[in-house]
Design brief:
By secondary structure, this protein is α+β, with helices and mostly antiparallel strands. Helix content is 19%, strand content 27%. The protein is built from five helices and eight strands, in the order E-H-E-E-E-E-H-E-E-H-E-H-H. The protein has helices at 10-18, 65-72, 106-110, 153-158, 163-172; strands at residues 3-5, 22-26, 36-40, 46-50, 53-58, 75-81, 89-99, 125-137. Strands 1, 2, 3, 4, 5, 6, 7 and 8 form an eight-stranded antiparallel β-sheet that branches. A hairpin with a 7-residue loop joins strand 6 (75-81) and strand 7. The longest helix is centred in the C-terminal third of the chain and has 10 residues, at 163-172.
Length: 201
């Protein structure tokens, strides 16, 4: 019932880009380490960069498990489900890396997300995933659910933060700079965000 794909293209790419939510799974190498599974929302926060590369914006939060696991071992799985229309589940298994604000690739990667105002959400990293295995499965047991819209709470909460206050917020959280299992998480303090030059200068 499952099918393996060589690339993210055509109807597969259309399906991925149409979903308002997806899920990420990572884990540390230690046998006793905690597996992390996260839902990711906000329309416009994910982009298919090319046939084998997907990226998404990693926004402010009180944990940084995905970042920590990727820094340790790079393993990640992304999953999308069809909650409307024909049943379908798509998984991209691959290697991921967090790209931080001071990375020379930052501006080029950020340009792939024109439909979301990342300044409202405390953007701290861009997660880039290089696909190694792309598969779909039936999704027959996934229920029908309707998408009514994004919540505005995250933007309202973090839009009032500047670089300094956002970094201070992260430093107060126990599991942002360090994961639940003690792995290095988000590097702090945050590098400043790049600013567009003011008009007339």
């Amino acid at each position: 019932m499952g099918k393996t794909y060589e690339r993210i293209a055509g109807r597969l790419r259309d399906f991925i880009e149409a979903q308002p939510i997806f899920f990420t799974a990572t884990a540390p190498l230690a046998d006793t380490g905690r597996v992390n599974l996260s839902p990711k929302g906000l329309v416009g926060c994910l982009a298919v960069i090319d046939d084998l590369t997907v990226a998404y914006l990693d926004f402010a939060g009180s944990n940084a498990e995905t970042i920590a696991h990727l820094r340790e071992n790079g393993r990640i799985t992304l999953m999308w489900c069809a909650f409307e229309g024909p049943p379908n589940i798509v998984r991209v298994h691959g290697r991921g890396e967090p790209v931080f604000r001071d990375d020379p690739r930052w501006a080029e990667l950020l340009a792939h997300f024109p439909d979301i105002d990342s300044s409202l959400h405390g953007l701290r990293a861009i997660i880039v995933v290089h696909a190694e295995l792309i598969r779909d499965t039936c999704g027959y047991a996934v229920p029908f659910m309707t998408y009514d819209g994004d919540r505005d709470l995250h933007g309202k909460r973090f839009a009032r933060e500047d670089d300094e206050s956002l970094s201070a917020y992260f430093e107060k959280k126990e599991h942002v700079a360090t994961s639940l299992d003690g792995l290095p998480g988000l590097p702090l303090p945050l590098p400043p965000t790049s600013r567009a030059p003011k008009a007339g200068r």
